[in-house]
Amino acid sequence: xxxxxxxxxxxxxxxxxxxxxxxxxxxxxxxxxxxxxxxxxxxxxxxxxxxxxxxxxxxxxxxxxxxxxxxxxxxxxxxxxxxxxxxxxxxxxxxxxxxxxxxxxxxxxxxxxxxxxxxxxxxxxxxxxxxxxxxxxxxxxxxxxxxxxxxxxxxxxxxxxxxxxxxxxxxxxxxxxxxxxxxxxxxxxxxxxxxxxxxxxxxxxxxxxxxxxxxxxxxxxxxxxxxxxxxxxxxxxxxxxxxxxxxxxxxxxxxxxxxxxxxxxxxxxxxxxxxxxxxxxxxxxxxxxxxxxxxxxxxxxxxxxxxxxxxxxxxxxxxxxxxxxxxxxxxxxxx
Length: 335
Known about the structure:
Pathway: Protein modification; protein ubiquitination. InterPro entries: Ankyrin_rpt, Ankyrin_rpt-contain_sf, SOCS_box, SOCS_box-like_dom_sf. The chain folds into 3 domains: 19-169, Ankyrin repeat-containing domain (Serine Threonine Protein Phosphatase 5, Tetratricopeptide repeat, Alpha Horseshoe), CATH 1.25.40; 182-295, Serine Threonine Protein Phosphatase 5, Tetratricopeptide repeat (Alpha Horseshoe), CATH 1.25.40.20; 297-335, Elongin C, Chain C, domain 1 (Orthogonal Bundle). 46% of the residues lie in helices and 0% in strands. The chain contains 19 helices and no strands. The chain has helices spanning 17-28, 33-36, 40-47, 50-56, 60-63, 81-88, 91-99, 114-120, 124-132, 147-154, 157-165, 195-201, 205-213, 239-245, 250-258, 273-278, 283-294, 299-311, 326-332. Helix 3 packs antiparallel against helix 4 (50-56), helix 8 (114-120) packs antiparallel against helix 9 (124-132) and helix 10 runs parallel beside helix 12 (195-201).
């Protein structure tokens, strides 16, 4: 068999670039290959050439291809002009393509939406344009990560704030479909996939606070069922445990206490000084945790947590509309 050949003897994606590009075209282009050769629409989106986009999309032949997933000459990943413009952060091109009919939530071959790649590349303006146009703030269920998770990991509080404003879910949702109910839904078996965990692991305090203010579950950061018995041995058993293990400063612990975390989920009594030392626990953070667990929480604090849970995270944004004094509203919102 020739190098790079497939099992049926046909040429496959060998080490040479052009062969891989040809294979991607055959597999993923949603138009005949001769049409995919014309990549002017995609190239203009890549370089941010708005005038060329205007000129091309005056023609019906190009307008009908606005959602074409083509292998463009500037790269090999089959995707739409909108996805390309969002990746590069050309907000004016993103806005124009949407107004000309580009579908905002089409995914590429990796399951990434235009919003997700805008967030990954740190383009706030493009992300806000997509969100305003109706893009799903949670990205695609076909991709393992979410815009919220990535913004939390890299500490982009400005992008995270925009995602939350447009209704992004700040908890992990492992339901296979929107209407799936337990026991048919997947169970959380690791905190690593959770935005709260990743923001703590990277010590992004502002993002950590934003997630909690938006209603993130302070114990497991998950919507569905949790199976702690299937957590990896030695891995954190809850968000508070993770905060302590990652050596986060005391402010992280204080926030979890304020937002009603269950302190009894942390099993630190069984750990000797040597084990704690290996985990590089912040002494001040550990002291705050111990003090919080040694005394009852105030009635005022318990009431705030109870009211927020009764409202639910999807209605917290309505708190400013309640017929309450402004200080009470700010108190409920942790402002």
